[in-house]
Amino acid sequence: MARRRNLRSISTPIVLGAVSVPLAIALLVGWTLLIAENLSTRTDIALDVWLLVIGAISFVVIAAVLVLFSYYLAREILEVRRQDSFIDSVTHELKSPLASLRLCLETLARPDLPAGTREHLREMMLGDVDRLSSFIDDVLQASRLANLDQVGVSVSEIDFVTLATEIAEGVRMRRKLPERSVRVEAEPGFRIVTDEASLTIVLRNLVDNAVKYSGPTVDVVVRARRDDKQRAVIEVVDHGIGIDPAHRSAVFQRFYRVQSPEVRERKGTGLGLFVVSALVKNLGGAVDAISEGLGKGTTMRVVLPSDQEAKSVANEEVHA
Ligand code: ADP
User: Fold this and answer.
1) Closest CA to 304 of 85, 129, 158, 100
2) Domain boundary among 105, 120, 149
3) What is the pLDDT of residues 259-302, one digit of tens each?
4) Quick one: 136 and 209 in the same domain?
């Protein structure tokens, strides 16, 4: 019902724009031809020429304003639609761990509970609290980044393998996955000079997505290497549902979720990649979604500046 209302609300301004723009252009052309015809039969034409020029400029401006108006209106309506589905997702993301926590607490109150079950419930509760807290981090981070708040960069030398392994283990535990399902493949001791807090959020989001958008058998690899310019190239590779090339850059927009049944059946807010992209840009890097198409898996590639450049990006921010 809500979907139908949304479709109706977006079609009205588009139809209005589509009708009014050609009308304005037809009026402009007709009116120009009329004046031009009059000009050829008159001797004192200075005033008419001026009228012609001013009229033509006004019509061009009107047509441009109409096109812009239709474009912005359609964009705003799409944004409102995305926010609607964001609110649905937020409600789910908040309610389901809370419901699970409540159930665990009620079960824990039973005096006859075996120690093993008690421990299992405790782990479940920890997982739910982690999920809630990382969700709240994403929402807060996205709101700061959307308001163009400066996100402080404090660079240090990070042991990539240790950080990525911790994140992979966290995601595996939370989603109850076997050991080899999320692996880190980088030279032992591979180090990156960057902001640890930002890189942690970026990796957590990418690994979490790679698992979430995988099929029943999860096979995710986190890779890192240096390219010929000494930049750090980090890739999170999955063999999941893939991304249609048409959505490749849009997935980094705020609240954007691909409208497909495979994506809809997995819960999400459309904030993760927006946060990733903003944080990576803030570090002086770039992120790209690479996929050969639907069903063919996805590689998320983050390129971070060389250690030398990373230090100078951080210095610029300190002096700004
Ligand atoms: P969400 O909370 O929906 O996962 P994100 O901002 O993290 O939000 O991702 C935006 C959209 O990009 C997702 O809704 C999904 O359509 C697509 N996407 C992200 N990561 C992947 C992936 N690894 N494989 C396939 N699609 C992905």
Assistant:
1) 158
2) 149
3) 999 998 998 888 899 989 989 998 999 999 999 999 999 999 99
4) no
Q: Are residues 202 and 299 in the same domain?
A: yes
- Please write the tens of the pLDDT for every residue from 44-56: 667 677 777 877 7
The ligand 1 atom at the shortest distance from the C-alpha of residue 242 is 25
298 touches ligand 1 (CB under 6 Å): yes
Of 103, 132, 149, which closes a domain?
Answer: 149
Mutate to test the pocket of ligand 1, among 88, 134, 235, 257 (most ligand atoms within 8 A of CB): 257
**Pair 309, 173 in one domain:** yes
Cα–Cα distances in angstroms (integers) from residue 67 to residues 8, 17, 85, in the given order: 20, 7, 28
The pTM of this model reads 0.71
pLDDT of 149 higher than 80: no
Please count the structural domains in the chain.
2
Minimum CA distance residue for ligand 1 atom 23? 210
Confirm or reject: Cβ of 240 under 6 Å from ligand 1: yes
Do both 36 and 93 map to the same domain? yes
| CA 105 / ligand 1 centre spacing (Å) | 32
- CA gap 299, 238 in Å, rounded: 6
Domain boundaries, position 257: 155-319
Burial of 209 (0-12, 13-18, 19+ CB in 10 A): buried
